[in-house]
Amino acid sequence: MLYTIAIILLVLWLLGMVSAYTIGGLIHILLVVAIVMVLLRVIRGERL
């Protein structure tokens, strides 16, 4: 479930890179949230 959310946020970030700059800030914040979530899972040692 966590990786699904991270992939969705990554896709939204990529779409934000090619779309208007007005939503670019929000997309970058979502990308940072996705990276933090994945890092927390890796640090905790949870299995995929």
TrEMBL record:
UniProt-listed InterPro entries: Lmo0937-like
Parts of the chain that traverse the membrane: 6-39
Keywords: Membrane, Transmembrane, Transmembrane helix
Superkingdom, natural source: Bacteria
Protein's UniProt keywords contain Transmembrane: yes
Name under which the protein is recorded: Lmo0937 family membrane protein
Species of provenance: Undibacterium umbellatum
